[in-house]
């Protein structure tokens, strides 16, 4: 990738809203992922980490098991976005196309706004048609310079100040599927 290390590229053209890939890995608790990152992975994979936090209880560790989705780089102007979608009680992290994507474009999503969005499907309950989204940003100790290269680049991949924020919001089902900038 021209952004960082390995990346993921589209082989064929895609339409906005297409489901691109599922982020798959080993489901672990945050203390385990923190331990692995500190003690093992920093020396194993250098600066890259492959943890996707679903919520305060669960992290997907895609370092040693999973799909190539773990190689998708961050961009401040991404062509994809991620959603954690609950299907009959199981959460799946799905990467969708944010706009039409040409063959051989690198797939990117915004780590800062997309990571750790959990959507709890409440349509199974009686007060339906709303979805709760719980935003929580992964806590990292260092600022990572961003190399996405877009004019609107914010300069850093992560944001320590934003990461300590924890906000619970409610969105409608229709809003969920209308990706906004
Ligand atoms: C999930 S990995 C992505 C795959 C990575 N390129 C690789 O080869 O392992 C996430 C790591 O990639 C790097 N990375 C991803 N997007 C980046 C960007 N826009 N600018 C700088 N580094 C980035 C950071 O080191 C980050 O911790």
From TrEMBL:
Transmembrane segments: none annotated. This is SET domain-containing protein. The keyword Transcription applies. Keywords: Methyltransferase, S-adenosyl-L-methionine, Transcription, Transcription regulation, Transferase. GO terms for biological process: methylation; positive regulation of DNA-templated transcription. Residues 142-158 form the Post-SET domain. The keyword Transferase applies. One of its GO terms (molecular function) is histone H3K4 methyltransferase activity. Signal peptide: none annotated. Coiled coil: none annotated. GO terms for cellular component: histone methyltransferase complex. CDD domains: SET_SETD1-like. Residues 1-112 form the SET domain. Gene3D superfamilies: SET domain (2.170.270.10).
């Amino acid at each position: 990738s021209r952004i960082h290390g390995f990346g993921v590229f589209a082989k064929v053209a895609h339409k906005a809203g297409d489901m691109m890939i599922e982020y798959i890995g080993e489901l672990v608790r945050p203390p385990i992922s923190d331990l692995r990152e500190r003690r093992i992975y920093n020396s194993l994979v250098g600066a890259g980490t492959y943890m996707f936090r679903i919520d305060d209880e669960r992290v997907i560790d895609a370092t040693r098991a999973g799909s190539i989705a773990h190689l998708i780089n961050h961009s401040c102007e991404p062509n994809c976005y991620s959603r954690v979608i609950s299907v009959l009680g199981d959460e799946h992290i799905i990467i969708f196309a944010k706009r039409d994507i040409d063959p051989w474009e690198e797939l990117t999503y915004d780590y800062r706004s997309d990571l750790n969005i959990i959507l709890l499907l409440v349509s199974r309950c009686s007060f339906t048609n709303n979805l709760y989204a719980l935003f929580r940003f992964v806590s990292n100790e260092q600022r990572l310079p961003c190399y996405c290269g877009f004019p609107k680049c914010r300069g850093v991949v992560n944001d320590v100040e934003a990461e300590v924020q924890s906000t619970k919001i409610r969105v409608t089902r229709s809003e969920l599927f209308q990706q906004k900038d």
